Automatic annotation (TrEMBL):
The gene is valS. Belongs to the class-I aminoacyl-tRNA synthetase family. ValS type 1 subfamily. GO terms for biological process: valyl-tRNA aminoacylation. It comes from Bradyrhizobium uaiense. The keyword Ion transport does not apply. A motif ('HIGH' region) lies at residues 45-55. This is Valine--tRNA ligase.
Length: 955
């Protein structure tokens, strides 16, 4: 028995437990051993994470695909797992130690600290997994993986060692994003660009051979900088080669202020003649662009900041010559000063000696660490790198050839732009939590990369014996006695970038590098669902690693979704206070309502606007369907064994079978095309409008009538349609559909494992292939049955009759609403010059049409009466006499006033959108909002014009 009220909280936990206990989500079910596999790997959330709206959207879309394909008979593996999240996890544990006033990481030592991290992971690391289960994610939870699992760790080590052996991993000194608080290199993804109100300092650099005079512009060149503290590391001044102001100076030198170092003036296209003075200082060790300029011109790299962001001039005395004060004194004065304090002191010293021309306010973007919140430094340091350019070539080719396709396709351009200009990938991090780099250093710094320490020791001993650094006897003794080789080689303390292990996710989770049968069965995967922000960091790297080690692209389709924003289109952020907590939404409205709300808004290539009201609307949809199922139950609607909808005799029942077939095909094809919002919209319209508002409404007279064949057939057809809806709706709203499936009748199994409606199990391409060549296109779907079933419920005659009733009633209601006619007012209807078929329909459905359209009478005439509103319904004219019902002139005046408002709205929006400055500078969401306003106003205008035209004809 269906409960009176729909209460998600009473259903969801119970259903989740039933699924888990039954093993419904497990891959490799015995009955599907011959079925085609369908694989999705979850983008592994951080083990420190908590469910946010991005997760909710991403996992809902994955779940739709998995439930859909599972119902289509595929052997579905949705591979779950979490990422160890190096920096985030280390920070969580370090913060916990600090709060408990326990020894810090360095006091504790590496081994003991890692014990504490593993302890934290065991106690608190599963939070987000439980939250994903609340959302309804149908992963094979028995196969959950963690990037630091033993098997995945072995995969990481093997990949590192093999790439190093192939020369694709190497160590190099380059600039990295350096976090002076966390004391580690970080990836671009962990850098946030923050708008800061700062200054632009204009500095005078004396030209060599000319007497410096602050009053004489010919004696110096002016450069502008936002980082005056780094000028101590300048090694050139760059000007554009076409800038005529500096043509004669290229090849000459300037004397670096304060330092006295002689540095060249070079011509480089990076300099912009339109910005500032057109001349820029070049500091290769402290700016990414300057680093590239330095490489082009062979400039030295002078680092003047240490790991903590303090001035470090020790060792640079050779570059500190010709100072107004001595180099030693200068180095001593500034050594160890924090960078922003040093900035003030250096600016003061520049001003003191006449090198500061002026200071201007300047708002600019400054990189900050997303975890630490401090300003990130470009820092010159030795790190491990992957030759991403070489690995990128097969990954580019795979997308160009169509082996992997992006949806929407426009993201392929983004992918190509980045991959074709890819830089070396810095993979080392100065952390303790993570995969420690499998590299050991000999006493002279020689590097030995190996899968195990024993292997590294063997390689090192062999090398040093060959080099005669140690004797063969010493080598033998050290090999057999670990005590004698203690300290002989030391392991690299750094760990790998988290994205390195994530790049192996599609095959490491399946058991690679072992010869696991799951690797052969489930790799390559089918669809990757992810956000656009990690195309570079994750998608591209999985493509590179998958193709290099597995010789196949890791997935055939990459579906890219956009951001979830608030209802006004603003990006959600804690600082704005507009973050919507998915768990809070689930508590209030249920997981199904949240899932359906997100899916209905998930149009390809568009951000999602979400509000509690939108979720509430979808909760109302669930309630409406719940009540419709209760109505069916109360009217004893049960599907008899062996019921065949093809045998229905009643026109209404054949119509609903026709419409059900149509929506099944639409939902199926739109899910296959990853048009999730269109699929959700189709099932929403069918359930709310077709099934609830029309079919059940039109069936009420039959259900309330006498017992007989028509009533029995209608009861069976309502139950059949309800069951088809439960199947179609299940991927979107799994909890409510599973509950209703269980309580509406005695069934043999769970809905999650029930077959998807057979007739839509084939695509139009498959049908074409069957018709022309007759092959078995999909081993799961018998092709002949699928082809026959595809049109089994097509009944154009039934659709023509019931569709006419629906369209007529809808038109009447619409016109009455347009003309402000109260719903209680009964009006006559005249059907003009109608066909015999239409007359018969009108007579058969007379009472129903009058009841639903609020009509006093239906009559027939050769011409429309005077003062009647005329409408076209399926090619025939119907007239609604309104003379005496409304004041036609007043109504026309009202509509023309409304038309003026619509025109004014359109004009106002057009003025904004034609303003190039507005379009260029306004946030993307604001521009999109204005376009939506215009579209709504245009639609309103069209409807008003149609109403005015009808009034003209009635006058």
């Amino acid at each position: 028995m269906i409960e009176k009220n729909y209460q998600p909280a009473d259903i969801e936990h119970r259903m989740a437990q039933i699924w888990e206990d039954s093993g419904a989500f497990k891959a490799g079910r015995p009955e599907r051993k011959d079925a085609a596999p369908f694989t999705i790997v979850i983008p592994p959330p951080n083990v420190t994470g908590s469910l946010h709206m991005g997760h909710a959207l991403n996992n809902t879309l994955q779940d739709i695909l998995c439930r859909f394909e599972r119902m289509r008979g595929r052997d579905v593996l949705w591979q779950p797992g979490t990422d160890h999240a190096g920096i985030a996890t280390q920070m969580v544990v370090e913060r916990q130690l600090m709060e408990r006033q326990e020894p810090g990481r360095r006091d504790m030592g590496r081994a003991k600290f890692l014990e504490r991290v593993w302890q934290w992971k065991a106690e608190s690391g599963g939070t987000i997994v439980n939250q994903l289960k609340r959302l309804g994610a149908s992963c094979d939870w028995s196969r959950e993986r963690f990037t630091m699992d033993e098997g995945l760790s072995r995969a990481v080590v093997k990949v590192f060692v093999e790439l190093h052996r192939q020369g694709l991993i190497y160590k190099d000194k380059r600039l990295v994003n350096w976090d002076p608080k966390l004391l580690t290199a970080i990836s671009d993804l962990e850098v946030q660009q923050v708008e800061v109100r700062g200054h632009l300092w204009y500095l005078r650099y004396p030209i060599e051979g000319r007497t410096f005079n602050p009053e004489d512009p010919k004696s110096f060149i002016v450069v502008a900088t936002t980082r005056p503290e780094t000028m101590l590391g300048d090694t050139a001044v760059a000007v554009h080669p076409d800038d005529e102001r500096y043509t004669d100076l290229v090849g000459q030198h300037v004397i670096l202020p304060l330092v006295g170092r002689r540095i060249p003036i070079v011509a480089d296209d990076y300099s912009d003649p339109e910005k500032g003075s057109g001349a820029v200082k070049v500091t290769p060790a402290h700016d990414f662009n300057d680093f590239e300029i330095g490489k082009r011109h062979g400039l030295p790299q002078i680092s003047v900041l240490d790991q903590e962001g303090c001035l470090s001039l020790s060792g640079n005395e050779d570059y500190l010559r010709g100072l107004p004060v001595g180099a030693d004194e200068f180095a001593t004065e500034f050594q160890g000063i924090e960078r922003f304090t040093a900035r003030k002191k250096i600016v003061a010293r520049l001003e003191e000696f006449g090198f500061l021309e002026r200071i201007e306010p300047n708002t600019h973007m400054v990189p900050h660490g997303d975890r630490s919140g401090v300003v990130i430094e470009p820092y010159l340091t030795d790190q491990w790198y992957v030759d991403a350019h070489t690995l990128a070539q097969p990954a580019i080719a795979a997308v160009r050839s169509g082996e992997t396709t992006f949806v929407p396709r426009n993201w392929e351009k983004t992918y190509f732009d980045w991959m074709e200009n890819i830089q070396p990938w810095c993979i080392s991090r100065q952390l303790w939590w993570g995969h420690q780099i499998p590299a050991w250093y000999g006493p002279d710094g020689k590097v030995f990369v190996a899968e195990t320490e024993e292997e590294a020791v063997g390689n090192a001993l062999g090398y040093y014996v060959e080099q005669e650094v140690i004797t063969p006897e010493q080598g033998h003794d050290m090999a057999v006695d670990p005590a004698k080789r203690e300290g002989f080689i030391t392991r690299d303390e750094d760990v790998l970038d988290t994205w390195f292990s994530s790049a192996l996710w599609p095959f490491s989770t399946l058991g690679w590098p072992d010869d696991a049968p799951e690797v052969a069965r489930y790799y390559p995967t089918n669809t990757l669902v992810t956000g656009f922000d990690i195309i570079f960091f994750w998608v591209a790297r999985m493509m590179m690693m998958g193709l290099h080690f597995m010789k196949e692209a890791p997935f055939s389709t990459v579906y890219i979704h956009r951001l979830v924003r608030d209802e006004k289109g603003a990006k959600m952020s804690k600082s704005k206070g507009n973050v919507i907590d998915p768990l809070g939404v689930i508590d209030e409205y249920g997981a199904d309502a949240l899932r359906f709300a997100l899916t209905r808004e998930a149009a390809q290539g568009h951000d999602i606007r979400l509000s509690p009201h939108l979720v509430e609307t979808n909760r109302n949809f669930a309630t409406k369907f719940w009540n419709a199922c209760r109505f069916a139950e109360m009217n004893e609607c049960v599907k008899p064994d062996g019921f065949d909808p093809k045998g229905a005799k009643e026109t209404l029942n054949r119509w609903i079978a026709h419409e059900t077939s149509r929506v099944t095909r639409e939902v199926t094809e739109t899910i296959e095309d990853h048009r999730f919002n269109d699929a959700a919209a189709a099932i929403y319209r069918f359930v709310w409008n077709v099934f609830c508002d029309w079919y059940l409404e039109l069936a009420k007279p039959v259900l309330m009538g006498e017992e007989g064949a028509a009533k029995a057939e209608t009861r069976a057809m309502i139950a059949w349609t309800r069951d088809e809806i439960l199947k179609l709706l299940h991927p979107f709203m799994p909890f409510i559909t599973e509950e209703l499936w269980a309580v509406t009748a005695k069934r043999d199994g769970l809905l999650v494992l029930a077959p998807w409606p057979r007739k839509s199990g084939v695509t139009s391409e498959q049908l074409a292939a069957i018709a022309t060549a007759g092959p078995v296109v999909d081993p799961i779907i018998p092709p002949v049955i699928a082809a026959l079933d595809a049109d089994e419920f097509s009944d154009p005659a039934a659709e023509a009759e019931i569709g006419w009733v629906v369209d007529l009633v809808t038109a009447m209601r619409s016109v009455k609403a347009e003309m402000n006619i109260p719903p209680s007012t009964l009006t006559p209807l005249v059907i003009v010059t109608s066909s015999d078929e239409t007359r018969d329909r009108a007579q058969r459905w007379n009472d129903t049409i009058k009841r639903l359209a609020r009509l006093s009478d239906i009559s027939f005439a050769d011409a429309a009466p005077e003062g009647a509103m005329q409408l076209l319904v399926r090619g025939e004219v119907v007239a609604l006499p309104l003379k005496g019902v409304i004041d036609l002139a007043a109504e026309r005046a009202r509509l023309e006033k409304e038309l003026g408002k619509a025109d004014a709205d359109i004009k106002r929006v057009d003025a904004k959108l034609s303003n190039e400055k507005f379009v260029a500078n306004a946030p993307e969401e604001l521009v999109e909002e204005e376009k939506e306003k215009r579209a709504a106003a245009q639609e309103r205008r069209t409807k008003i014009l149609e109403a005015i035209e009808r009034l003209k004809k009635a006058s």
